[in-house]
C-alpha cells in the first residue's frame, strides 16, 4: 500500500524522471522487483546486466581458454592498465600513478605507513578527523603505534565535515601526514580538497585522500589538487561488486621516495625472476604486493565502460538533482536533515536523523525499502546516479512519513 503523498511528490518525481538524460541507464542494471526503493547504493552498487555475461566470457575464454598464458598476455599488466583507465576517467590522474588491487584497508595502511616512514622524526603527528570512517581511524591508530607517532584529531561536526580553517589550525612543523575523506561517510560532506591540500603542503606535509564515497559520484582532480596519495573502493558507485579490489594513487614525484611496507613479490622489479632480496619495481608498480585479484576486476571493467560512455560531469549533475530531491522530500515530511544543504558541499548521499533510526530502518527493509542505518540516529540515503530513479527516491522516503 502506497504511503500518503500530500505534496504531490510522486508526480514531481515522474516529471524529473522524464527530464533525466541518464534515465535509460537504470535499465542497464539488475533491479529486483521485490525491492521498492534501493537507497544504499553508496554502500554496495547494483550489478550491471552485462556483468554476468562478462564473468562467463572471462571464465570460458580468458581463464578457461588461455589458462596460465593469460598472465603473460594481459593479467600481469592489469593492475596498472586498469589503474590508468580509472585515473583518466574518474580521478583526474595522469597515467602511471594509479594501481588496482588489494582492499581499501590494506592500501590505506601501505600508503600511510610509507608516508610516515619517510617523514623526519620531528614530524611526529598524524592528522585525521575524529568522525572519519572507522577503518581509517583504526589503521592510523596502528600506524601511529608502530612508528612512535601521535594522532592529532580534528573535532568534526557529525552533520558536516572538516573545513580548510580547521586543518590550518592543526597542521605545522610536527605534521607527518594528513588523512581525510573527500566525502564523509556519515553526512556526505564534500571537502574542499584543493584548498586543504595546499594548506597541508604549506605546512610541509603530504595528504592522503580517502575517495571511497566520492569516486564515481563527484568529480575528482587529484593531479590538479596537487594530491600526494589517495585510496578508494570500487564496489559502491563503480559496480565492482562485494569485495571488489580497491585502488591507490601515488603522485609520480613520490615514486622511488616512498617505500611501501608490504614487500610482496608482485611489487618487485622482476617478480618472475624469483631472485633473492627485494628490489622495488620502478614507478607505481612498486606499491603492489601480492597477486592481483584478476577475476574480481571483471565487473569493475564493465562498470568503467558505462562511465566512459556517459561521463562524470553528467553523473554529478544527476547526483546533485537526486540529493536535492531527497532533501525536498525530507523537508516536506519535517524530517531533520543531517547533511549539508549546499549542493557544492554535498556528495552523493543524504543523512536524516530519527530518534528510532535503527528500528525504522529495520521496518523499512521489511517493506522493500533499503536505506542504511548509521549509529546513533542516522538514516543514510545513498543515491547511485546511474541506477536510481527519482520515483524510487520518492517511494522510499515517503515511507518515512
Automatic annotation (TrEMBL):
<comment type="pathway">
    <text>Cofactor biosynthesis; NAD(+) biosynthesis; quinolinate from L-kynurenine: step 2/3.</text>
</comment>
<dbReference type="InterPro" id="IPR015421">
    <property type="entry name" value="PyrdxlP-dep_Trfase_major"/>
</dbReference>
<comment type="subunit">
    <text>Homodimer.</text>
</comment>
<keyword id="KW-0662">Pyridine nucleotide biosynthesis</keyword>
<dbReference type="InterPro" id="IPR015422">
    <property type="entry name" value="PyrdxlP-dep_Trfase_small"/>
</dbReference>
<keyword id="KW-0663">Pyridoxal phosphate</keyword>
<protein>
    <recommendedName>
        <fullName>Kynureninase</fullName>
        <ecNumber>3.7.1.3</ecNumber>
    </recommendedName>
</protein>
<comment type="function">
    <text>Catalyzes the cleavage of L-kynurenine (L-Kyn) and L-3-hydroxykynurenine (L-3OHKyn) into anthranilic acid (AA) and 3-hydroxyanthranilic acid (3-OHAA), respectively.</text>
</comment>
<comment type="pathway">
    <text>Amino-acid degradation; L-kynurenine degradation; L-alanine and anthranilate from L-kynurenine: step 1/1.</text>
</comment>
<dbReference type="Pfam" id="PF22580">
    <property type="entry name" value="KYNU_C"/>
</dbReference>
<keyword id="KW-0378">Hydrolase</keyword>
<comment type="similarity">
    <text>Belongs to the kynureninase family.</text>
</comment>
<dbReference type="InterPro" id="IPR010111">
    <property type="entry name" value="Kynureninase"/>
</dbReference>
<dbReference type="InterPro" id="IPR015424">
    <property type="entry name" value="PyrdxlP-dep_Trfase"/>
</dbReference>
